[in-house]
Amino acid sequence: MGLLTPSGGLLFWMTIAFAVVFFILAKFAFPAILGSVRKRETYIDTQLDAAKAAEVRIAGLEEEGKKIIADAEREKVTILKEAAASRDKIVGDARETASQEAARIISEAKKQANEEKDAILASARGEVAMIAMQMATKVLRGQLDDDQAQKALQEILADEVKS
Predict the structure, then answer these.
(1) For residues 124 and 118, is the Cβ–Cβ distance under 8 A?
(2) Is 133 or 109 the better-scoring residue by pLDDT?
(3) Radius of gyration of the chain (CA)
(4) Residues with Cβ < 8 Å from 151, sequence gap 6 or more?
(5) How many helices (H) and strands (E) does the chain have?
(6) 74-85 confidence digits (pLDDT tens)
């Protein structure tokens, strides 16, 4: 019996031992191992499906995020346009109000200046008339000192009243 060539009896008993071990493994160990492998396969398939679903959800969320950002940008532009229009309207209204107020103040100042001018002119006329009367009185007193000059003046005035 050599090491490289086994005898027939050894082969027979090795085959029976192998068959018994294989039968025990096939009956008890292989189903448990196969069940565990199937569970693992199912778990991996479930996780792959969940990962694909999560990937789809993430893509959807990215698209939704892009839409939200685009909407926010459009709204920002709209708000900025409205703010600019409101600012321009307020500035225009303020300018118009200031212009009207300036026109009113200028009008009142002109009116007051004209009234003061008229008052000054009336006062000056009154003073000029007063001075003229005083001068005329002094001139007439000097000329009317004698009776003959008084009678001549009376006749001239009487002639002017008649005509």
Answers:
(1) no
(2) 109
(3) 64
(4) none
(5) 3, 0
(6) 999 999 999 999
The answer to whether residues 149 and 143 touch, using CB atoms and an 8 Å cutoff, is: yes
CA atoms lying within 13 Å on the CB side of residue 74: 6
Distance CA 129, CA 134 (A): 8
Would you say residue 1 has pLDDT above 90?
no
Domain boundaries, the chain: 26-162
Residues 6 or more apart whose CB falls under 8 angstroms from that of 1 comprise 7
Helix (H, G, I), strand (E, B) or coil at 2: coil
Sequence-ordered alpha helix ranges (H) in 25-146: 30-143
pTM of the model: 0.42
C-beta of residue 150 within 8 angstroms of C-beta of residue 144 = yes
